[in-house]
Design brief:
The protein has a single domain, classed as 2-Layer Sandwich (60s Ribosomal Protein L30, Chain: A), CATH 3.30.1330. It has a 6-stranded mixed β-sheet with strand order 1-2-3-6-4-5, covered by helices on one side. With about 120 residues, the protein is of the alpha+beta class. It starts with 6 loop residues before the first strand and ends with a strand. It has 2 helices and 6 strands; from the N terminus they run E-E-E-H-E-H-E-E. Helices cover about 25% and strands about 30% of the residues. Strand 1 and strand 2 form a beta hairpin. Helix 1 packs parallel to helix 2.
Length: about 120
Amino acid sequence: MSNQELKRAHVGKRLSEYAVYNGVVYLAGQVPEVEPKADIRGQTREVLGHIDRLLAEAGSDKTRILSCQIFLTNVDLIGEMNEVWDAWVPQGNTPPRATVEARLANPEYLIEVVVTAALN
């Protein structure tokens, strides 16, 4: 694939799980699919696992994240979410990040995470 070729993966009717263009991978918002009834720690672990899997498939990894947006249904959950995040994110490679409170599409979701990363 050339650097200028656009590639989409896991294309569905409404969205693709990611797109790669010009050396950058853009992930769709990742939400808990297996454990939507889990607490914020469990949902965060699952979502970060989705991110690891999709970045690896695209040819990147969490050390290459350029930007991260985290949406929480209740910003009071940020401390518990950060415990899981801090154990996952590689120190020295912490990306620019925003965390905001938002109502999510499914009321069982406590978190949604969007990342953009450079390819390896």
